[in-house]
Design brief:
The protein is α/β, with parallel strands linked by helices. The protein has one domain (about 30-159): NAD(P)-binding Rossmann-like Domain (Rossmann fold). The chain is about 35% helix and about 10% strand. The chain has four helices and four strands; from the N terminus they run βαβαβαβα. A four-stranded parallel β-sheet has the order 3-2-1-4, sandwiched between helices. Helix 1 (about 55-65) runs parallel beside helix 2. The longest helix has 16 residues, at about 145-159. The termini are far apart.
Length: about 160
C-alpha cells in the first residue's frame, strides 16, 4: 500500500515570518516517518541553518538517519526546533539547537564555534536559512527589506 498524501488544491494560507510547521495545512512531510537512512554520514558533523522547518528540517532528519550529529541554527521557532531535536535524538544522534539571527555576523561566528565546541568540528555546512518576501512591483521593495534579504541570504553564508 502506497502512502496517501494530500492533493491540491490546498487551502490558501499565510503566516507572518518566520512561519510555523504546526500551522501549515496540510502539514508537510519532511520524512519524519518515510525516510530510512543507511549510515552514509556516520561520524560526520553538520551545521544546518534553518533546520527547524521546511527543507532544512527534511535535511536534518535525513542527515541524522544517515548517522550525522547536527547543529541546527534557527531564528526563533522554538516549537519546530524542539520537534526536530526529538526526531534527531530518536536516531541516537547528538543535536545542538542554536536560536538567533543569522543577519548578525557575531551570531554566525558563534554558531560555528558552538559546532566546534559541542560536536567536535564541522564536516558539512548546509546554508538553508533564508529570508524571502513577495512584492507586486520591484519598486515596492524597501531598502530595509533589500538589506534584510541580503544579510540573511548572502552575508550569513560567508560569516
Amino acid at each position: 500500500m502506497q502512502n496517501e498524501f494530500p492533493k491540491p488544491p490546498f487551502p490558501g494560507q499565510t503566516q507572518p515570518m518566520p512561519g510555523s510547521t504546526s500551522k501549515m495545512n496540510p502539514r508537510p512531510d519532511h520524512g519524519e516517518t518515510t525516510y530510512r537512512g543507511s549510515g552514509r554520514l556516520s561520524g560526520k558533523k553538520a551545521i544546518i541553518t534553518g533546520g527547524d522547518s521546511g527543507i532544512g528540517r527534511a535535511v536534518a532528519i535525513a542527515y541524522a538517519r544517515e548517522g550525522a550529529d547536527i547543529l541546527i541554527a534557527y531564528l526563533n521557532e522554538n516549537e519546530d526546533a524542539s520537534e526536530v531535536e526529538e526526531l534527531i535524538e530518536q536516531e541516537g544522534r547528538k543535536v545542538v539547537l542554536v536560536p538567533g539571527d543569522l543577519q548578525d555576523p557575531d551570531h554566525c561566528r558563534a554558531v560555528v564555534q558552538r559546532a566546534v565546541d559541542e560536536l567536535g568540528g564541522v564536516d558539512i555546512l548546509v546554508n538553508n536559512a533564508a529570508h524571502q518576501a513577495t512584492f507586486k512591483e520591484i519598486t515596492d521593495i524597501s531598502d530595509e527589506e533589500w538589506e534584510a534579504t541580503f544579510r540573511t541570504n548572502i552575508h550569513a553564508m560567508f560569516y
